[in-house]
Write a structure and sequence with these properties.
235 residues, single chain, 8 helices, Methane Monooxygenase Hydroxylase, Chain G, domain 1, elongated, disordered C terminus
């Protein structure tokens, strides 16, 4: 992005980027901690994630206020306007990621150390690892101005969807085999769905970031990957 004649304008744009990075770091930390709390039945860590959501909300408000003030003062155009509007949109998705991590943390007490969790720990951990990599990478690609990497990251979301389907089927099997596990497995289903939704929000961020950097919209339909190969790769 070219420098502006008014140096403070550049600083205001950089501040939006900083807030996006801060929110992304917090979103990744919350996602990681929520999953760890779930797998280790760590109620204290879960409560920490729930508390962090207030910080995430505050950062989104700070970014929104900064963006609105910048628009009013600078009346940005073209790439600058895309950057400001894109920051608002990306912040909204990052805030939702924080909400979803909080939702996972809220179920830790209800699930506890059930048998089904012990058997499913690897599947949930694998899915969480895939999602965490996405969350950590998407804003880095934006800040480093790497639109091609954003395309690849967006397309990788389908692997998360396939893994979620696998976890869903596994949980249904446990519930049919042992009705005593229905309650715990239902909570786990919601946790897995929250992880899958985090992946969807990362996709939204990648699409907005790509538009900010290039001025072009990515196609609505992503290229289809081979489901069999994706299942092998995720194991």
């Amino acid at each position: 992005m070219a420098a502006h004649i008014v140096a403070s304008f550049d600083q205001e744009l950089k501040n939006l980027d900083r807030l996006i990075r801060d929110m992304a770091d917090l979103a990744a930390a919350m996602t990681k901690a929520a999953t760890q709390a779930l797998l280790e039945a760590d109620k204290a860590l879960a409560q920490h994630v729930i508390s962090d959501d207030a910080i995430m909300d505050a950062r989104q408000r700070e970014l929104d206020e900064g963006a609105i003030t910048l628009i009013a003062k600078r009346q940005p155009m073209a790439q600058d306007l895309r950057a400001v509007v894109g920051a608002i949109r990306m912040a909204a998705d990052l805030e939702r990621i924080g909400d979803l991590a909080k939702n996972i943390a809220k179920r830790v007490g209800a699930i506890g150390t059930s048998t089904s969790l012990g058997n499913l720990a690897h599947s949930i951990d694998t899915m969480a690892g895939m999602v965490l990599t996405q969350v950590q990478s998407v804003v880095s690609h934006y800040v480093d101005r790497e639109p091609d990497a954003l395309i690849s990251l967006r397309n990788e979301d389908e692997r998360i969807d396939v893994h979620y389907t696998s976890v869903f089927r596994e949980l249904l099997t446990y519930m049919m085999e042992d009705p005593r596990q229905i309650t715990a497995c239902t909570h786990l289903l919601f946790c897995a769905k929250n992880l899958e939704r985090i992946g969807d929000h990362v996709t939204n961020i990648a699409e907005n970031a790509y538009y900010v950097l290039t001025g072009d919209q990515l196609p609505v339909q992503r290229p289809k990957l081979d489901e069999t190969q994706m299942s092998i790769d995720s194991q």
